[in-house]
Amino acid sequence: MNHKICPVVLCGGVGKRLWPVSRKTYPKQFSKFQGQHSLFQKTVNRFNDPRFESPLILTSNEYRFIIGEQLNQAVTSNYGIIIEPMPRDTAPAILAAALQLNKKSGNSTMLVLPSDHSIGNDEELISLIYNSQSFAEAGEIIAIGIKPDRSETGYGWIEPSETGYGNSNLFRVKQFHEKPDLEKAENFYKQGKFLWNSGIYLFSTETIIEAFKEYSPKILKYVAAAVENSTIDLDFIRLDKQSWKGIEPISIDYAIMDKVPNMLVTTYQFGWDDLGDWNAVWRENQKDQNGISSSGNVFSSKCKNSYLRSENANQILVALGCEDLVVVSTTDAVLVAKTDQTQDVKNAVDQLEQAGYTQSWQNLIENRYWGKVETLLSEEKVQINRLEINPGKNIVLQRHSFRSEHWVVLKGKANITLEDRKITLQENQSLDVPMGTKHSLSNLTDKPLILVEVKTGSQLDMNDTERFES
Question: How far apart are CA 201 and CA 99, in angstroms?
Answer without folding.
Answer: 16
